[in-house]
Design goal:
By secondary structure, this protein is an alpha/beta fold. Helix content is 47%, strand content 14%.
Length: 503
């Protein structure tokens, strides 16, 4: 978790942007992301140079010698954050505007890459040298505090805190998925080295980045010591679609900063005919928008065949089934209404998951997970596409705590069900005999069918009532008489005191 000092520095930096004339929250995050990316390029280049020296391998710095920027050739070291951050404000601004920013826009050689596509129309928006100088100094201080921090993933936490300040999140159904919930879903799915992973509503690519980091932690040797698998990881594993070009830019840079050279990040309306993906992906991780209804004319006809509806949360489930190859897995967040909605479309998509594929788990999350954006109650659905059924028992878990308070402050607390959720999910044998009074339990398919494919946990969970023992009536009456006697004595004493005052 971030320290209070680090949060205060980020808050002040945010205010610096606002007082400097950049007031759109997305613009602020976008410009900060550019500058953090520029800083990280320098740092990453230095780190790779050290690693190569330790291993005795050659290393060619991207800043070495003369660098081509547009039609000009300039000294590469002038583009390094560690060099230009000491320049006077006017000179720094010129270097940033004329050299550094054009350099990062054309950093990736492949003009068809995600990075190149979405950096092509990127604009450096800081209006004055003074603002740039203040922002650079503030970022230097933030990076100093991050380097001193003992937190495991302070950079990820810092960036998440930055994203959390986008006040427009929550409009149009767009909720930023908390980082720890993303990580939980990734750990539940346990991505493999040969997976093809997709988020059809990727935003800043949080799910894709987390999946990539998980693979680095758990399958490092398998991937990076094998040329073919490393190429797959870098160029063919990660797919993300969104309809917000600013988010796509941030997402592409986020992926590249985390060492994924060429993810397929594309501007695409996933629910329309623009999205031709069928049986392409082996793993989908997503928190799709719950923005109510769409114009039926814009929705792919294939999806309407599965469930005839305008509700995005149902259409996305149909989309996931279409995009997954046979044997492909999905973990996605849905609003609670999907679990028990009574419309024909609600029942149709649940029936398709249960009867036509293998529904594995329903994890009910507390309503405070998405605060301060919204108090909506949600659940995580986990299923495998089979095309011919396969649901035997569905695992339910009643999450009541996620390590943070469930109010708008979302302060860290000791109660946290996430480690237990992951542990229990990966040990299915131990779940067979759990009573329904516990946090998790299994429900057979036949019972779900009998209940009209209702997937709400309250339909199956049993409350544990503890009998309350009361004392005998005689004891209660004796206690009442004793209290009455005490009250009468107190009243008599009060009366005497009042009479004494009257004299």
């Amino acid at each position: 978790m971030l320290t209070g000092e680090l949060k205060n520095k980020i808050d002040r930096l945010w205010e610096t942007f606002w007082t400097g004339g950049i007031t759109n929250p997305l613009d602020v995050v976008e410009q900060m992301t550019y500058l953090m990316f520029i800083h990280d390029l320098d740092e990453t280049d230095n780190l790779r140079a050290k690693e190569s020296a330790m291993l005795g391998l050659p290393h060619k710095s991207m800043f070495a010698g003369e660098v081509q920027v547009g039609e000009r050739t300039i000294p590469g070291n002038q583009l390094k954050w560690s060099v230009f951050h000491d320049f006077p404000a006017g000179q720094m601004y010129s270097v940033m505007q004329e050299w550094v920013f054009p350099f990062i826009k054309n950093l990736h050689g492949d003009k068809n890459s995600a990075y190149s596509k979405y950096m092509d129309d990127a604009i450096f928006k800081l209006p004055t040298p003074l603002l740039l100088s203040k922002v650079v100094d503030a970022l230097d201080e933030i990076y100093r505090l991050m380097s001193e921090s003992q937190a495991v993933d302070v950079r990820g936490d810092t960036y998440e805190y930055l994203l959390s300040k986008i006040s427009q999140s929550g409009l149009n159904g767009q909720f930023r998925t908390p980082r720890h919930i993303i990580r939980m879903m990734v750990e539940l799915m346990d991505p493999k080295a040969d997976d093809v992973i997709c988020d059809p509503a990727c935003g800043t690519s949080g799910f894709l980045v987390s999946a990539g980091e998980y693979l680095k932690e758990h399958r490092k040797e398998e991937i990076f010591f094998n040329r073919q698998k490393k190429d797959h990881y870098m160029n063919h594993m990660f797919f993300g679609y969104d309809m917000d070009r600013t988010m796509l830019r941030i997402g592409a840079m986020n992926m590249m900063t985390h060492g994924i050279d060429n993810p397929f990040i594309e501007y695409r309306d996933s629910l329309s005919d623009q999205n031709p993906d069928k049986e392409k992906h082996s793993l989908i991780l997503a928190n799709p928008p719950f923005k109510g209804t769409l114009d039926a004319d814009t929705v792919s006809a294939d999806l309407l065949k599965v469930c005839k509806t305008k509700k995005t949360e149902l259409l996305f489930l149909a989309l996931f089934l279409r995009m997954l190859r046979i044997g492909g897995r999905c973990a996605c967040i849905v609003p609670d209404g999907v679990l028990f909605g009574s419309s024909a479309a609600h029942k149709a998509i649940r029936q398709e998951l249960v009867d036509g594929n293998r529904l594995e788990a329903v994890i009910s999350m507390p309503s405070g997970v998405f605060k301060p954006y919204a108090g909506v109650s949600t659940a995580v659905l986990i299923f495998t596409k089979t095309g011919h059924g396969g649901t035997d028992n569905v695992w339910f878990y009643d999450m009541t705590a996620d390590g943070f308070s469930l109010d708008d402050k979302r302060s860290p607390v000791a109660e946290n069900d996430i480690p237990d959720i992951v542990a229990r999910f990966h040990n299915p044998e131990e779940e067979k005999d759990r009573p329904r009074t516990e946090k998790s339990f299994l429900v057979p398919k036949a019972e779900i069918v009998e209940n009209g494919y209702d997937l709400s946990i309250n339909k199956y969970k049993k409350a544990e009532y503890k009998p309350v023992e009361y004392p005998p009536t005689s004891e209660i009456m004796a206690e009442l008489r004793r209290l009455e006697s005490e009250i009468n004595i107190a009243i008599d004493e009060l009366e005497k005191m009042l009479q004494g005052e009257g004299k």
